[in-house]
Design a protein that fits this description.
The structure is a homodimer of 308-residue chains. With 308 residues, chain A is α/β, with parallel strands linked by helices. In chain A, 53% of the residues lie in helices and 11% in strands. Chain A is built from eleven helices and eight strands.
């Protein structure tokens, strides 16, 4: 296996693979990161002497497409995947420029940390977590099989999705939550005395992800800007109604409409979390579903019609 | 001690006091709650045979003022405190209607849970947490001393603050974060397939508090509506700028201004969390500070000038 990019995710993938006895070749344009990952036991800093089975591109979303094309041109691997939080734009870039589009399947593990860099890497980061794979119309059987093998090595469970749907869903479940955490935390800038002692577990939990690296996250927000803007626009309507209601209540008016507006938002918040388990996904069920979908795809891609 | 209201906080206070050997009299207009709390070992369901040292009013913010006045009229206790998340409005109600305003000090422990009711109560809920006390200009020495004693029993550390400042700060550190969690979670209402498997730890943490009871929380938002609306209005400006920037980026324009807007928000989010520790407050330091402030207040209130 080759791991291109030895940040938190790349290093964690490499550590998991090493634990299963896989030979891992590491590279990172930040040599210090690569050396740290290697020192942590994540693999060797070297070009693979011959094409490896799978190259995992673990770079920020905006670089995934170009790095994929470049690595395929170099002949680094038989198949390729990536781990970026945004899937559609990198896929489109690759499909437009790749020599062999069938050798790639996009990927995104549902695991991370507000910490970054190789030192935050952990072999068990993905254990029991969902990991989205986004086979395109051009993805071949081999690429998908290699992708599933990677997930097995990492102890994760597959969710097969279209790249565009993935991005829409992730706007809801990850990118907008990050924006909201940043908006909340930003209110404390310049706020003086006593705030640090007045924060409880609730505040810490709602804002923890806002500590994440701003470079990576601005790249994510940019790469999925349309989906995120669509969700935030709806959210702005809710927020405007709430602020209006609070202003009525602040004026001392016992307005039933204003109270209902406040209660309605709180209740929709509770309703939105219905069915969302705190304990993580049913990984066995995810494997069953994904393997069935793989069989269906195998049928479809047995005679791939690659158009560029 | 008397505990009026045996929800999560009231029951936890009572359990902590029982653990220190304090006799606790429980009451709740919801008899089922009181019986549950008593069954959990939180105390006796009875009117105190004679005035107790301290009555802890653990009811929703909008009821604190009236319940305080009523309990003082009944002669339940020598001194009174409460535990509501909003302090200024209850204090004003009490000061306007109380026979002996010097016998009350407002309180608010920085601890809670998205769970509610007596079964969620825990004797150690407040251990190592900050607990705000809001002595008014009329609060007497005895009330403050009883309040501090309560915190000691609960293992919490005092922060002395003006009630209005408390409410402004809590808008930032608790009430707005709750609104943000609800707004985020509300986006998932009616969202179909695959969302539950796509949520990671980040989503769960940012939205956990939104699972909290909508009745209590609409009461809190109403009681602190002005401070919350002020913070949210600022936040709306940030959000509007961000959405505009995302729309520019979504249109494929490589706008430097739009990128800077996105990065600026993320960086201000990180900056807002500077100095906010994940490990909770330095409780020893809080006690030192509070005892010094108590000594200063003792000086001031040695000859209370009560005006009604």
């Amino acid at each position: 296996m080759a791991v291109i990019g030895t940040g938190l995710i790349g290093t964690s993938v490499a550590l998991a693979a090493r634990q299963e006895g896989v030979t891992v070749y590491l590279s990172d344009r930040n040599e210090h990161h690569a050396r740290t990952a290697a020192a942590l036991g994540a693999g060797l800093i070297a070009r693979p002497p011959e094409p490896v089975d799978l190259a995992v591109i673990a770079v920020p979303p905006s670089e995934v497409g170009p790095v994929l094309v470049q690595q395929q041109a170099l002949g680094t691997a038989d198949c390729y995947t990536d781990v970026a939080a945004v899937k559609h734009a990198p896929e489109q870039h690759f499909l437009q420029h790749a020599s062999e589009p069938s050798r790639y399947v996009g990927g995104h593990p549902m695991a991370g940390s507000e910490r970054s860099g190789p030192r935050a890497g952990r072999a068990d980061l993905f254990r029991g977590r969902a990991w989205v794979l986004t086979p395109s119309a051009y993805s071949g059987e081999a690429a998908l099989a290699r992708g599933l093998e990677l997930l097995e090595i990492c102890g994760a469970a597959p969710v097969l999705m279209d790249s565009r749907l993935h991005d829409e869903r992730m706007a809801l479940t990850s990118h907008v939550p990050h924006v909201m955490a940043s908006l909340t935390a930003a209110r404390l800038v310049g706020t003086p005395d006593q705030v640090p002692v007045l924060v409880g577990r609730g505040f810490l939990d709602t804002t923890r992800i806002a500590r994440g690296g701003s470079t990576l996250w601005s790249d994510i927000l940019k790469a999925n800007a349309a989906s995120i803007a669509a969700v935030l626009t709806e959210l702005q309507d809710d927020l405007a109604r709430l602020v209006e209601a609070l202003m009525v209540l602040a004026a001392g008016d016992e307005s039933e409409t204003a109270l209902v507006t406040v209660e309605d938002l709180l209740e929709r918040g509770i309703a939105g979390l219905t069915g969302i388990s705190e304990t993580g996904p049913d990984t066995e069920m995810l494997w069953v579903t994904a393997l069935a979908e793989q069989a269906a795809l195998r049928q479809r891609v047995s005679e791939p019609t690659v158009q560029q």
